[in-house]
Write a structure and sequence with these properties.
2 helices, single chain, four-stranded mixed sheet
Length: 101
């Protein structure tokens, strides 16, 4: 993942098993995006922040700029399965042609 720097912010609590899942999703999103375009360089903040998540996904986030993203996760979320949210978001927010989810 050249150019994507993940920053694990764990002062609000450990991310536990989400860390492994998230790494896999970020790698998958990067691979999909790089097949279409050169992925932009970004810093990605990842933290436990239940109040800023969408209940149906257990995740949330925002873009502070074109080089700084924040991802909030709720590790306590009791989802039947964790969706491939990162691949979906990478497709929706890329500047290139739309990507498959």
């Amino acid at each position: 993942m050249d150019g994507w720097t993940l920053h694990w912010l764990e002062a609000a609590g450990p991310l536990g098993e989400w860390r492994t899942d998230l790494l896999g999703e970020f790698h998958a999103a990067y691979k999909i995006l790089s097949a279409r375009m050169r992925p932009p360089r970004v810093d990605i903040l990842i933290q436990k922040q239940a109040n800023d998540t969408i209940p149906e996904t257990g995740t949330g986030g925002r873009a502070y700029s074109d080089t700084l993203l924040s991802i909030a996760v709720d590790p306590e979320s009791e989802l039947p399965s964790k969706p491939p949210i990162w691949r979906i978001q990478a497709g929706r927010h890329s500047r290139g042609p739309s990507l498959p989810a």
